[in-house]
Amino acid sequence: MRISDPKIVAQLAELAVDVRPGIALADLTSLGIGGTTDLLRIKEHESLPDLLNLLDTNHIPHKFLGGGSNLLVGDGELPWVVLQLVRPEPDVVLEGNFARVDAAADLGRTITYCAKNDLGGMEGLIGVPGTVGGALRMNAGAYGMQIGSYVREVKLYRAASRKIEILRGHQISFEYRHTSFAPDDMMLSVTLELPSKSFNEILKGIRICNEKRRSSQPLGQKSAGCIFKNPPGASAGRMIDELGLKGLSVGDARVSDRHANFFVNAGKASAKDMLTLIADVRERVQKTYGVELENEVVVWNA
Ligand code: EPU
To answer: Annotated catalytic, 296?
Structure first.
């Protein structure tokens, strides 16, 4: 979708929104898949209510993009614009055991920065690509920990009230790869309370997680991490592997040879290829195990 009306373009500039026309989302997602649309980069959180009003008044649909690392975007010209926060400098401010982190901050760099200041707890998430806002929205987790455990406060744009609000940790529910945020709420910043640990101790944990991840996941390839959530008490990756589906391909979309719940873009996969592969694997698992696998990857298909 293109914003061509000069009046709207001028209003966006007044709201400190930088319009990048005709951006290929394939370049902004870790899967390297996705069509084209206008990207609206937001420099000031406070402009969001007015920005959303402007878009709604002019019937311009939108979606919020974080780091694009858990996302499968449709092909071709996309019927909505994409909003993304510009990362401020600094993006992490520490005070005692509290880290106030901008949603646009890179997750890995945030974990490392906190570690250097003797704040730990998030070692398991090292190596998970994406932004802190994206991790928060999905309640990203790995190796027995999840980000939600450390959340004390969240600043967000709430679609329901059309305002910027602050929620306390206890007002948010964090479940397995799921939170109580509405799909069109936009994370702005989060305050984490992290346990004190020495840098060396944290580094040990980080090294162990890095090693585990390197040995079991296809890190050098284009992927969106795990495609399916694990069903209660079972492992999607193990089931897909047991069915002998590693290497199964539709075009360049391929079930990873290393971890069967990672589907990689081995070249020029389209969203259609990837969605066909996902549907095929889901059906095969359903037939054999009687389990309907739920997507872990977020799909933006027009
Ligand atoms: N397994 C296989 N074959 C495979 C993959 C896994 O037999 O191809 C077996 C493993 O040997 C193991 C079991 O399945 O016994 C579980 O595998 P793994 O330890 O790799 O964990 P997972 O359940 O597949 C989850 C998260 C990952 C996270 C890891 C580490 C989900 C859907 N996935 O994977 O998160 O990194 O644990 O904690 O919850 C993601 O969210 O995108 C993601 C990759």
So the answer is: yes
- Calculate the average pLDDT of the chain: 97
Provide the pLDDT confidence category of residue 83 given band limits of 50, 70 and 90: very high
Give the strands of the sheet with 222-226, arranged side by side. 222-226, 262-265, 253-255, 249-250
User: Model-level pTM?
Assistant: 0.96
Does residue 302 carry a pLDDT above 80? Answer: no
- In sign, the C-alpha dihedral spanning 223, 298, 193, 96 is positive
Beta pairing, strands 81-85 & 36-42:
parallel
- Is 211 among the catalytic positions? no
- Cα–Cα distance between 273 and 110 in angstroms, integer? 34
Distance from C-alpha of 280 to C-alpha of 274, rounded to nearest angstrom: 10
What amino acid is encoded at 63 in this protein? K
**pLDDT tens digit string along 244-269?**
999 999 999 999 999 999 999 999 99
Q: Which atom of ligand 1 is nearest to the CA of 124?
A: 38
Choice among 87, 100, 177, 284 that is catalytic: 177
Q: Please report the atom of ligand 1 found closest to the CA of residue 212.
A: 30
Q: Please report, rounded to a whole number, the percentage of residues in the chain having pLDDT higher than 70.
A: 100
By CB atoms closer than 10 A (0-12, 13-18, 19+), residue 9 is: middle
Q: Are 58 and 5 in contact (CB under 8 A)?
A: yes
